[in-house]
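ok so dumb question maybe but i'm new to this and my supervisor (M.) told me to 'just get the structure for DUF4214 domain-containing protein' and walked off. so i did the thing. is this what she meant?? sequence i used:
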Amino acid sequence: MATLVAQQKAAAFFLAISGKNIDTAALDYYSQKIETSALSLEQVAQKFITGTSSLNGLTASQIVTKVYTAVNGSAPSSSVLADLLAGNPTTASVVAKVINDVLSYSGFDSTLLTAQSNFEAQVEKTLFPVATAASSAGAADVQGVFHVVGLTQTQDGITYWGTVLAQGSKTLAAVAQTFVNNSPLKTLSDSDFINAIFQNSYERAPTSAESSSYLALLSGGSTRGDVVAQVIAALKGTVAAGDTTAQQHFQAATHVWQPGELPALNYQEQVAAAFLAIPGRGVDARGLDTWSKELFAGKTYAQVITTLINSAESQKKGAQLTGDDFVQHIFTLVHGTAATAAQLASYGALGSKTAITQAIINDLRSSVATDSATVTQQHGFEYDIGTSLLYKTAASLTATA
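this is what came out, is it supposed to look like this??
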């Protein structure tokens, strides 16, 4: 999977040249080519120009003007256009320069910064899509099902099942039953099922009265989907004082996001740090979208770290190691240097891979040490976090435990 840095370029080039959002398959393909330098930006631009029928028959001047306008928000002046085309460069090279100059601009010119911000906002809508218009009416309830059943939200699932609900093709209970049938909850006893969905939704075990009430529903012919739908309805209403935090997490989990919208930067930074520390790469758009929203909805950092450690990618890239080898792997990725024997012993004593990883990340990010080695390592890791999140200039990053 290519990183967000390469994905932004692929999406930006396609949008600026074709005027359309890039699809998932093309995004994966071209961002990987960009990241591995299998294709230069000029070559990518040429492929997109060739594949855009609306550009057929246009002159170099017309194509450059069209792309420049799409990226900058206004057409180039005659002198700017002349400068761009001076020396008879290839059209693709000029187009690549126009797009990349805006994406990579790090100066202080307000006009250029505004153009950059506006263009990047358009690109982000491609990278972080949300429920379609057809599915938006049912999106929140589908997200509620994901939350109560205990599954990680996927945009494809929200869009598909949101559309089903919005069109009235199935009831919420019927959709919830489909989710249950395709989750680990399917094999649980009725009692264990109720315990599980209460842990997912209320973040506690059910009381005896609650358990008895839902067991009675199930024994009376109600489906597990019916129970999930009732729990969702209950969390939308008034809850006991002790359940307000769980309700807030439910509300966060069912927030319907706007195109390009992501949770606050502290959530994004936690995800970016975990990707740098575990698979050892910059975060990709899908990973950032999924896990920042899961953190926003109340999932703990430890849960996200555990999922990443157990992922197929990470298990091929060092997370499969054990003991000191695992500690050394994570420590080196985070600090950029090997751990000492004392550090290996200290972190190894924590036992679980999740605890070790979280401690290494948070210890460095929250460090107040003033020795040059620690400060250099901390600044280096924060820089990598910012770079992977497309920060243009030095930013104030927030370490979160």
